[in-house]
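As a warm-up, study this chain.
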Amino acid sequence: MSKDIFPDYRGNMEYFCLGCGKRFPTDELHYTCPDCGGVFLLEDLNFDELKKTSGLEWRRIFDKRAASKNTALRGIFRFYELMAPVLNEDDIVYLGEGNTPVVASSDSLNERTGLRTAYKNDGQNPSASFKDRGMACAFSYLKSLTRAKGWDEILTVCASTGDTSAAAALYASYVGGPIKSVVILPQGKVTPAQLSQPLGSGATVLEVPGVFDDCMKVVEHLADNYRVALLNSKNAWRILGQESYAFEIAQWYDWDLDGKCVFVPIGNAGNVTAIMAGFLKLHALGVIEKLPRIFGVQSHHADPVYRYYSVEDPAEREFAPVKVTPSVAQAAMIGNPVSFPRVRHFAEKFEAIGGRDAFQVVQVTEQQIMDSMILANRNGHIACTQGGECLAGAARAKELGLVSDKETCVLDSTAHHLKFVDFQQMYFDNSFPADYEVTPDTSLANRPELVLSAEEKDRLPAEEFAKTTAEMVVSKLGLSKK
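Now compare it with the structure written out below.
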């Protein structure tokens, strides 16, 4: 099989409701079950056909495609048979998403934490976040559906704290034609860098008082009553695209996941769901022989999934939404995650194969999140606040005796740290509002130092300025002459 030839295989995909078990065809836009309101998974009814190919052969196929020049196979769809194998080659949207690197932490960071860590830098996707994986799949499906239906206009909508809106607006602007983008943001809860992205891509941006959960209620009402394409985690096609994160981790480690622990911020629970689903597919096909352990991480300011799993007896667990308070990990500031039923579904499957410690949830503080983000980036990473949350989660897991320094903790940096420079600056300036509960660690909080005042510069002759300033730098740094 040539690395550039698009696959012949076609699946038979259906929506499957986790609430009532009913199934629906994929020739319509569905987000929740019309009968019970439950969330959907997408299932390929022909999946067992893929088992006729050995796990070893699948490894060879996927490795060969990694060198493809065919844009339809360059990104997440190099794993086409595991993704959305009902799409035609011409419908696949590729903007350079996927193939993000796994960067092993430096010796200095590992010595500081007592862990062996590595970051998967999903901030190196086109819109600078992991959401591009899901959008590539969702927009490919939407492009296919729009063509099949002959629609002359379709509005895409999403609620967002920043990353979803940036990705949705970017992909909508690229596909164009009948597709138009609207994003709904919580007023005052999005950084200027995040707000500028959907505006720059031409989306209509609407602000709503409150938090993400309030925006989500508006979007859900629109999706229930109007012909719009919802692009939040309720969109099963978007979750499907995010499974590629798991495929890429497995491929990066040459399909050997023994001793690997994958840390994922939970947020709306779509990503941790997708990652578990992806690893389970690989395991079912024999592409990997062992599942990694999955750790979901939540801030104490938004921790409903942690509270659910903190009850040891599964029979006594009861999920309850929580009221969130401000969090630096903005994408995780969700008190009632839409994808929680998916988490429970896949966690049970993970535990059935890998044992009770195959899926766990740890809780961290806002202080630990910010300290960890700054620590990671002072040691050569480009972690966002959610990436800080993952490093904090790994440290907490080590403290609880859940991981050892013999294992590799793969940390999910969901976005580029430049999206969160406002929080970083608040850390350096010690200007966090009290409700964030963050005080900078003085050993980490760099501040710019003034070498020479403007008044002193103005008093110096031009030819003396460079020499005088250089001598002051020498004094501050303790430099020695050559």
